[in-house]
């Protein structure tokens, strides 16, 4: 996969408010939705941080390569097509198997199952596999986004 990393980066210049963290934003291989990624990139940039957005249908080897190249403060996985639960397990297993990347915080959020509100909560399962934060989206995205903001403030920004 060498040489294939897209250069889709913030075009908004250097972050302005304490913008010291780098986020690697990606999806999972099966998921072609992209507005979730665009919205999250804007949200994280508004928080004052730098985003490297790998785009939709993100291949697992690309996430590994970009993690090694960028040394992000956090990998953010966003998926909404409902297959995320399965794909996300493969992604975190691959990332955690790389000793030099194993300590990077990785969080996931979005519409993680196919049955909406009737899905069982995937949080415990995904945490057990190695995700540091899990933010499932239900009827409204706001609780997930609030949880993510709190994670960034308490876990990432405070750790610096
Ligand atoms: C546009 C769209 C498409 C377009 C995508 C175009 C593109 N390139 O982006 C097309 C037509 C290609 C498409 C295809 C499919 N889609 Co579609 N799509 C949508 C739709 C109508 C809007 C998605 C969108 O752009 N939303 C705008 C963004 C800004 O909102 P968002 O995606 O929800 O993201 C926000 C939150 O979820 C949250 N969030 C997301 N990730 C993360 C991560 C973290 C860490 C946090 C904190 C928060 C968070 O924050 C984001 C910003 O607010 C939704 C329905 C809907 N109203 O959501 C269905 C929807 C996502 N699609 C769905 C499905 C099933 C499919 C298909 C499987 C349909 C099919 N049978 O072919 C395919 C899958 C394709 C694939 N390989 O992935 C389902 C998913 C079901 C589920 N998960 O429960 C939905 C919910 C429709 C439905 N109600 O059934 N889709």
Strands of the widest sheet, in order across it, are: 2-1-3-4-5
What is the gyration radius calculated from CA atoms? Answer: 15 Å
Structural class: alpha/beta
Secondary-structure element string: EHEHEHEHEH
Shape: globular
Small molecules bound in the structure, each named once: cobalamin
| C-alpha end-to-end distance | 32 Å
The helical percent reads 25-40%
Protein model, in words:
It is a single chain. By secondary structure, the chain is an alpha/beta fold. 37% of the residues lie in helices and 15% in strands. Strands 2-1-3-4-5 form a 5-stranded parallel beta sheet, with helices on both faces.
SSE map:
Blueprint: E1 22-26, H1 35-46, E2 50-53, H2 60-70, E3 74-79, H3 84-96, E4 106-110, H4 123-129, E5 133-136, H5 142-157
Parallel strand pairs: 1-2, 1-3, 3-4, 4-5
The structure holds cobalamin.
Characteristic terms for this protein:
160 residues; alpha/beta; five-stranded parallel β-sheet; 5 strands; 37% helix; 15% strand; binds cobalamin
């Amino acid at each position: 996969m060498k040489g294939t990393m897209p250069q889709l980066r913030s075009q908004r210049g250097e972050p302005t408010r304490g913008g010291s963290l780098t986020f690697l934003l990606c999806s999972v291989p099966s998921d072609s939705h992209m507005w979730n990624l665009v919205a999250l990139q804007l949200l994280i940039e508004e928080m004052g941080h730098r985003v490297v957005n790998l785009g939709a249908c993100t291949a697992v080897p690309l996430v590994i390569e970009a993690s090694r190249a960028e040394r992000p403060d956090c990998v953010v996985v966003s998926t909404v097509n409902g297959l995320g639960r399965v794909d996300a397990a493969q992604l975190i297993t691959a990332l955690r198997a790389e000793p030099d990347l194993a300590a990077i915080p990785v969080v996931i959020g979005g519409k993680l199952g196919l049955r909406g509100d009737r899905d069982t909560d995937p949080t415990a399962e995904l945490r057990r596999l190695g995700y540091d934060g899990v933010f499932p989206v239900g009827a409204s995205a706001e609780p997930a986004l609030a949880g993510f903001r709190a994670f960034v403030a308490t876990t990432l920004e405070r750790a610096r």
